[in-house]
């Protein structure tokens, strides 16, 4: 155990005790205070890794009923969140694509067109992942792109500590995260935010919501700017390793040629994938992405594409445990009132410049989304923000779009989005790398978002407030 791990092992419980033992501040319940103590312990252990990341999540899950944050039945039921099963479904689909060799063919197709250099390849993955979100929900884009990127990494024969492998995977994840802000259909949270605004506007402003193209016009500047920032930042933090693309393409071409024509298993996998993608778009909002992903994962077994032994070997069950435990902890913060209390402390109630208020609202949303479901942040925080928006001089439409975008800018933790959980699940990206690269991007993203909101949105008819 390293010195950092020893310190973290002791510091985590100490932080939890320091938070849990004093009398709770005004407005915070005892359950909420203890929920924050559990979060402090888990964050400290996630960062210092004295135990494996999934173990930390399981410890946090166990502490929820022990400390009275949630009843045991509720705490463990939260582990069954549909986002967890969506991740399981994606891993199973990726396993089938890798096992049948379909990912090799897709990787070869991609590399022939994009692999002029490491920089070109990483940029293409980032941009393609972003643009695909115009037509497909962002989580589905991650499900499609993950096995292709892994196939490229395999073709390049990259070790687990390779900078290029990490850059490609983070480009994929960040591309889908940024792309989730492009349209009202790119993510569920955007629709939730706009419906919340519409209900509020019935009594406080012009009746009606934000039109599809109005939303995209407001967000595209943020997305394009941050795609450029993300590309440059990944180039700086994970510079090229001087890899030769030609030999990798030749090797992959030879492997595909040796396997011969597309096999029946590959055709069945491709057929299932071709039906699954539109099903996620059409039925995902009604039945849940997790439901659809599991249904088509079952089809992989039914059509003899995948067997359970292969699934056991290829799925990173540790990440599933990590993600499930983290979702339960986040839900505990929600149901205990801890998150509402944090939001109430951060939201200005008057006497604050509108631009400073916007910065505070966006900042707290970005921080919370690293640990709690972005939909939960919208559901809890947006009504509270809208309630004080007129007093602070903010436009309700602008605030609602701001919250939707800010909760879609989580670049660091495996608990933030399924895409980040998938990337960590590959074994190429560890938490220290993810935080070291992702946190600065979030710090870059906040001023970029504010510049667009303050100076560009008024031109589009969204008043950001100010002098």
**Helix content class:** over 70%
Roughly what fraction of the amino acids lie in strands? under 5%
The mean pLDDT is 84
Low-confidence stretches: none
Count the DSSP helices.
Answer: 22
> What is the overall silhouette?
globular
Largest sheet: none
First-last Cα distance: 55 Å
What is the N-to-C order of secondary-structure elements (H for helix, E for strand)? HHHHHHHHHHHHHHHHHHHHHH
Question: How many DSSP-defined strands?
Answer: 0
Rg, please? 22 Å
| Structural class based on helices, strands and sheet pairing | mainly alpha
Walkthrough of the structure:
With 467 residues, the protein is mainly α. The protein has a domain at 82-187 and 209-313. It is built from 22 helices and no strands. Helix 9 (163-179) packs antiparallel against helix 11 and helix 18 packs parallel to helix 20 (396-406). The model has no long low-confidence stretch (mean pLDDT 84).
Fold topology:
Elements: H1 3-20, H2 30-48, H3 53-66, H4 72-77, H5 82-100, H6 102-114, H7 118-132, H8 138-155, H9 163-179, H10 188-204, H11 212-237, H12 245-259, H13 264-287, H14 289-302, H15 308-314, H16 317-335, H17 338-346, H18 354-369, H19 374-392, H20 396-406, H21 418-425, H22 431-460
């Amino acid at each position: 155990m390293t010195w950092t791990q020893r310190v973290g092992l002791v510091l985590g419980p100490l932080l939890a005790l320091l938070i849990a033992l004093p009398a709770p501040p005004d407005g915070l319940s005892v359950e909420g205070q203890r929920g924050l103590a559990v979060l402090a312990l888990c964050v400290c252990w996630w960062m210092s890794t004295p135990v494996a990341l999934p173990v930390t999540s399981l410890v946090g899950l166990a502490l929820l009923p022990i400390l009275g944050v949630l009843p045991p039945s509720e705490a463990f039921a939260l582990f069954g969140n549909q986002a967890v099963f969506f991740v399981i479904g994606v891993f199973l689909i990726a396993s089938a694509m890798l096992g049948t060799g379909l990912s090799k063919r897709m990787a070869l197709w991609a590399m022939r067109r994009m692999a002029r250099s490491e920089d070109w390849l990483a940029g293409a993955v980032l941009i393609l992942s972003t643009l695909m979100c115009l037509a497909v929900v962002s989580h589905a884009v991650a499900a499609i792109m993950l096995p292709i990127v892994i196939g490229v990494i395999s073709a390049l024969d990259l070790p687990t500590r390779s900078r290029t492998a990490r850059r490609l995977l983070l480009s994929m994840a960040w591309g889908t995260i940024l792309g989730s802000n492009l349209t009202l259909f790119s993510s569920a949270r955007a629709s939730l935010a706009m419906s919340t605004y519409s209900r509020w506007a019935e009594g406080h402003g012009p009746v009606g919501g934000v039109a599809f193209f109005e939303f995209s016009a407001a967000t595209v500047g943020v997305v394009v700017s941050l795609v450029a920032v993300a590309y440059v930042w990944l180039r700086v933090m994970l510079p090229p390793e001087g890899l030769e693309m030609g030999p990798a393409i030749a090797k992959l071409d030879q492997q595909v040629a040796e396997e011969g024509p597309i096999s029946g298993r590959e055709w069945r996998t491709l057929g299932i994938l071709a039906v699954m993608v539109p099903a996620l778009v059409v039925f995902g909002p009604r039945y849940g992405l997790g439901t659809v992903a599991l249904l088509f994962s079952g089809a992989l077994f039914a059509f003899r594409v995948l067997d359970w032994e292969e699934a056991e070997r290829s799925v990173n069950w540790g990440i599933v445990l990590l993600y499930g435990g983290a979702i339960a902890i986040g839900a505990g913060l929600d149901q205990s009132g801890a998150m509402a209390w944090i939001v109430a402390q951060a939201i200005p109630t008057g006497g604050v410049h509108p631009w400073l208020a916007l910065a505070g609202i966006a900042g707290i949303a970005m921080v919370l989304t690293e640990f709690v479901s972005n939909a939960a942040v919208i559901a809890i925080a947006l009504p509270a923000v809208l309630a004080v928006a007129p007093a602070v001089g903010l436009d309700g439409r602008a605030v609602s779009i701001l919250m939707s975008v800010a909760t879609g800018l989580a670049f660091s933790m495996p608990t933030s989005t399924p895409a980040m959980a998938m990337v960590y699940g590959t074994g190429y990206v560890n938490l220290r790398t993810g935080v070291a690269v992702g946190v600065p991007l979030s710090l870059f993203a906040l001023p970029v978002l504010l510049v667009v909101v303050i100076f560009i949105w008024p031109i589009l008819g969204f008043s950001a407030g100010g002098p």
